[in-house]
Amino acid sequence: DRGTTCPLHSAAVVHLSWTPKEARVACPVFASMTCVSSPFPVAIANVKCVPRFKTKGTGRSVANLLSRSAFRQVSGTSPTGSKLGRDTTTRAFASHSDEYSGPLDVVALGNMCVDILHPPGPIPDAQSLKTSEFLTTLDESLFARERERWEVGGNCNFLIAAARLGMRVECVGHVGNDAAGAFLKNTLHDEGVPLRRLASRELVDEVREKERKKNGAETGSQMDKTLVCHVLRDGDGGHAFCSRYDLGPWPLLAEVNGVDDHAAKSLGKTRAVFVNGFVFDELKPSAVKSAVAIAKANGAGIFFDPGPRAFTFVKKRGSKDSKQYVERAEALDMILSNCDVILATLEEAAALVERGDAADVGHGALRGTAVGGGASVEVASLDENDGKDSNARLKGKFTLDPATVAFQLLRRPGCSADWVVIKCGPDGASVFTKRGDMVFVGSPSVTVGDTVGCGDSAAAAIVLGYAKIQAVKKKLFEASSGKIAYLPNAKLAAMIEETLTLATATGAATATTIGAGRNVATVDLVKSLLDSCVCDTESCAGWGISPDAAKRAKALLDDSLEKSGKRE
User: According to DSSP H, which parts of 337-453 are helical?
Assistant: First the structure.
């Protein structure tokens, strides 16, 4: 409707059919939101906008709204030295079967690792953090030897969250024949997540023998080692990683040209594949492409989360081409041409935009953390003479608009994505679709332990909700004998809104714990956060979540748990 107030501050679902080519709506947070022209009406699900808040590790606590039993304790020893126990009663009831007989809901490709959680402290700058010297220091530290600090990480965070939300999941990844590998496999098994070998045993033996002959001794190879990642935390909710991924040579598993037969079987019967940017540190683009092709041939959706590796895919202005850039550019083109959903922070999404101001700001973003919609981003940007002097840099404040960045990414040449999901941390998340739909949802406010694994957990809920939407669309298409290919705008907006509501609640639940892996969101805590949105409408409105959307999000979760047999 013409003359409407900012859609972010409307409590109802608003349908807008724009007559002009574009219309701008002023908003204090999304500073300049542009609704692009579309042949279809633009559906916008709107809730109250949440001003971005800064904390020293805590947000507005909802602990008084929740029972203490909802907050599952984490294992091992806390950074302060206090002993913590693991309350396993709040886990989803995971199946221990080695293989699902029917179709899978999602398979995660690569990036299997074991995290070592270090106590809070200053995080070094990027130049010092990503060095072999610093990695050696971490590897030889006393903390690396304390098994109680071990936790599964990487794509394991996504897998465990997805399993707890009721999805049938498997992983296709590589682990070595070492203590870390045994820990990872046992942990995933306990959570009901079977592991399929990325590389066959024959290939591992072949590579080991080649390296033995080359080095003249049994020195071990990359194929024998499980990736170990050191997780550093600043005590204020921020975190950084340091591992072999950062040092190369890339890809770490260069000998892998395709997946093992058992892995191919899993990929061939899954409805979705989750790929993150780190997989290209492990595998050649051709190997990733072959795995994705197996899944797509059977109708699977592809979900791509570039993560911090987003900043390595696209060349900065003024820099010279290199073999690494060419390979990364090819990898990005390949995955964007095959994916259905892109999940990224605002800066990560901007870095993937091929050209323009958004891409420049994305490339220069410091730290690569989520900043919330339309917030100022601190960047190191090239000056006006960057073409002549590529070393010239100016630091400044720039504003990234989620809608602008998302639609530029959707229009990137060769990009096949239907959705772009912008993750905005404590501000919630947004979905922008290729046909012009825009949905914004806030996030429950919780007492923050740290933010490790929050995005991975939220991604699991996105996969669940997207699958439901596709199932409803397919049913409608078949019922209409192929005449109706789209959901009504109001229906689609409502389903995206409930998906985002479940995603932000899942991410917030993970933020209450320390570390990820088995410490990601539990069903009990996610339900409690959703219930609090329904019971306390004032807080719910303040968080930017519709009580009705919270009810539907809980119903989405209950339905998934019931189908999987995990609902009590």
Answer: 346-352, 357-364, 402-410
Query: In angstroms, rounded to a whole number, what is the distance separating the alpha carbons of residues 6 and 49?
Result: 10
- How crowded is residue 535: how many other Cβ atoms within 10 Å of its Cβ? 12
- Each residue's pLDDT tens digit, 132-170: 888 988 988 888 888 888 999 999 999 999 999 999 999
Q: What single letter denotes the amino acid at residue 459?
A: A
What's the rounded Cα separation, in Å, for the pair 427 and 439?
13
pLDDT in tens, 313-357: 876 544 556 677 788 889 999 999 999 999 999 999 999 996 545
Token digits of residue 334: 């390949």
Concatenating the DSSP letter of every residue in 29-64 gives: SSTEEEEE--SSPEEEE--PPPPP---SSB-S--GG
CA distance 514 to 449: 5
Q: How many CA atoms lie within 13 A of 510 on its CB side?
A: 30
Helix, coil or strand: residue 338: coil
> What's the pLDDT at 398?
63
Say which DSSP state 220 is in. -
Q: 258: Cβ–Cβ under 8 A, 6 or more apart, which residues?
A: 264, 287, 290, 291
